[in-house]
Write a structure and sequence with these properties.
By secondary structure, this protein is of the alpha+beta class. It has 2 helices and 8 strands, in the order E-E-E-E-E-E-E-H-H-E. The longest helix has 9 residues.
């Protein structure tokens, strides 16, 4: 399980309905230090107080797209997932 400072993860994405088909993407960005050892991309994570600005404020959304995401913390559910 991945968390940000002990909180659940919220992921930035884009949603649309095209020809009556619900479509969405989860946006990715360059990895931060906590992910770069295992992958060259990571989801653009949001903190709880960033959700409303992401959804309602275009300038805030642009700023969120440009920032380095908060570090992710990993807690193995089955003993197999680790950053080491």
């Amino acid at each position: 399980m991945f968390t940000v400072s002990g909180s659940p993860l919220w992921l930035a994405g884009i949603y649309d309905c095209v020809d009556d088909v619900k479509c969405f993407v989860i946006l990715t960005t360059a990895p931060n230090a906590s992910v770069s050892k295992i992958h060259d991309r990571m989801p653009l994570t949001l903190l709880r107080d960033e959700i409303r600005p992401w959804l309602t404020d275009p300038e805030a959304a642009l700023a969120l797209l440009a920032r380095v995401p908060a570090p992710l913390y990993c807690q193995a559910q089955d003993g197999q997932l680790t950053f080491e």
